[in-house]
Amino acid sequence: MEATTRHTGAFLMRTPDALFTPERFDAESRQMADATERFVREQVAPYVKRLEHGEPAQMREILIDAAMLGLLGIDIPPEFGGLGLPKPTSALITEKTALQPSFAVSHAVHTSVGSLPLLLFGTEAQQRHYLPKLTAGEYIGAYALTEPDAGSDALAGRTRAERHGDSYRITGNKIWITNAGFADLFVTFAKVDGERFTAFLVERAPGLRVEREEHKLGLHGSSTCRVVYEGVVVPAANRLGDEGEGAYVALYTLNLGRFKIGAAALGIAKEAWRIGRDYARERTQFGRPIIEYPLMWRKLAWGATLMHAVESATYRLADDLEQAFRAEGTDRQQVWRAAAAEYAAECALLKVASTEALHQIVDDALQIHGGYGYSEEYPIAALYRDTRVNRIYEGTNEINRLNLVERLEYALRKGLWTPQPTGAPATDTVEATLQTLRGLCSDALRGLAPHPEPPQAMVEPLADALIALYLLDSAHARAQQTQQPAHQAMVALYHEHVRRQLAGWSADLSPLVGRAPITVEAQPLAPLYEGVWEALQ
Q: Are residues 193 and 128 in the same domain?
């Protein structure tokens, strides 16, 4: 691929000549994914009821069992006891862990935000001491960032760290801390002397008090607690990065965490879609299986289409991240930091796209169940509850829309991507629609330049147009590579949905771009739904 296709914002310039797709996974990657799925279905699922009824500490034992398969070190290099998997394979494994959401979130916190700060910012001594313990399950990790008055505005946290000789004393409160009930190591953020936002590696010790489990809407099998720091003494050697670098530790790690949420959301969506399809096949009304009724199978056709688009985008980004992590450089850790920062916009984009697609798919699967979907005796009810938080944690989708727009605007100012000349708007082909979207998004991003902060009324339509561009571009490029009829049918259906929304986005963004809204003549959807459904049979 040309270099121009391998940087943040490149999708605003052109479609890549080729991209990584799930069809390219080798046998070893597929075997690892199959083994992970068997582990989740056979060794995690049987414990769900116990986990959800007051035994969250059982999750620690499950995570230790997962470590025996290497699942706690999928992104950690072999010299620290991990597998060091390529990012596409890591995403595939994450898909499979997501089949049980409580396990998925516990696993994800441990393996991403609970471990990756050490990889990106830890000293050699810190890495050699902690990473082998984390990959082996000897230590379980947690990530303590959020505070009662510092959620989306995480840097407003009030937890303090005061230096006393060779140690710090940390005082404050953290909330919504996953794995807190049984974690051994807390990546903790505090302000040194109330000013310099800094990260620390805090072991469970006297002065660190974990309060009761939160009563959550979903994810009842995971541990989520408030953590109180009552003058916890932390050696200066456990500071992660320099004083004042905490924002970088938090944000670079969250970028990768958002990518992982995208992969997990895709895995849960596939499970919810399967549950909905299987029920629709089994349930008979008016003498026919309900899957034969268009109002039912159209939901499944649209869900499959959304999954195709999100899956195509997920593995495109996974491969881009992999290339960035493997870039040449004398300082490997510096390369990794740069890679974690490079695709911040695309990671935010994927997090929003995947979790909102998941919401639609789970909601439709529950609707297919009718009244039974509202019963806890059917698995879709728990899945519906468990997935709602995906649009909230690791940056709400509102914050991630802002991040997406702000990071692409920043990249434009730095010359990291260049708006391409666009002709008259057209949407008669996928290629024409992509070019029209590129023009609209590029002009809107340039129109934001005079604004110190992006007007939030403009952020949502611009972010949604950017998401549609990235997903349609990825799905279309994949379909062009595979030439599979189902892929082509799903691109056609997704394209028409994008076309219809394009008119609205351009109307909302017309004050930024300085031209009249684009007009789009809608095409009939019925034959496109039929094309997808026939191709899926």
A: no
